[in-house]
Amino acid sequence: MNGNVALAENNGNDIIRQLEERIDRLERQEKKVKSASGGTTVTGISRSFNPAISANVLLRGTYNSEGNADSSKEVKTGMKVEEMELRFSSWVDTYLKADMTLAIEGTESIEIEETKAELLLDNNLSLTAGKFFTAFGKHNLLHTHAFPFIDAPLANEEIFGEEGLNEIGLGVNYLLPTSFFSELTFQFLEGDNAQFAAKFNDDFAYLGHSKNLWELNDETTMELGASYAYGKNSFNSIDYDETYLAGGDLTLKWSPAGRETYRSLVWQTELITSTREQVKTGVYTLAQYQFAKQWWIQGRYDHYEVKEDLAENKDRWSALLAFAPSEFSALRLQYNLLNQATEDEHQVFLQLNYTFGSHPAHNY
Fold this sequence. Notes:
It is a single chain. The chain is mainly beta. The protein is 10% helix and 52% strand. The protein has helices at 3-9, 14-18, 20-36, 154-160, and strands spanning 52-64, 78-91, 96-105, 109-120, 125-133, 166-175, 181-189, 205-215, 220-233, 241-254, 264-274, 280-292, 295-306, 314-326, 329-339, 345-357. The protein has a 16-stranded antiparallel beta barrel. Residues 33-47 have low confidence and may be disordered. This is Phosphate-selective porin O and P. InterPro entries: Porin_dom_sf (IPR023614).
């Protein structure tokens, strides 16, 4: 499911969608009652726990004004199968939900992108364990096909790397008993990725995230988030260093009452800073405007800088036009102007994004 389709699905009451976790918990209690009353097959296996299976395919054509003679360049002119994703999701029982995502990069390598389980401890407390995209900010939680733009923001690309901040770990999620949606997440991580390279077995990483959502009026919501992570790294062979990550995000969403499927506007901004080896900071701001039932126009600005190395600084301007005929497919055309110390790059992407099967909802 692509980013524009995900946005279309969110055009209703955003507060209700953000409280979907509470609805899931009520459904689990309902399943428990049905099981107690004999709601199983003659084999003793409940069909309600069969996994939802889906597949997503990303096909992309690219033009890049620079580096076309270098076949190793990440963004190079040509056509490719960008990614194929196979996802399984199911309730294991009335308290435990499991998800597994297999990603195939191009047409060759396959990897377990996510495999996680969520356990309900009580009405406001849940436990997550496995391999997952950590709860750092907004964009890091998204799978490739759910990106708002065809590529990730510079902040995420340069600081977290191509795979994002993806870790094996254990997380605790607590839904605060407030009048608005407020969730605290704490994650205990293995500490083995582009940001944290543990030297010893007990060098773990730790992450905290706060997510808050307010309904400003019947048509507008505001989300405010803050993230922080800490861990050891051994990138420097002489000194044994520490990595600190900090971030903040702000999202405003508007959808006119009575015309939710035809008009909507999203403005989102996120800042990420890292102290691994050097102080690196990235920020992006983007807008998504739906001007018809199946059409979106979008714009984004990225900035990335390294405090001690000005040659690494980059700015990028992006524009995107999307046609999403249904919730299962989208055709997107994107243009990037990348300003950097070397030659500026003009990049054009054309992406076909389609999903078949039963695909679960994404985080918003």
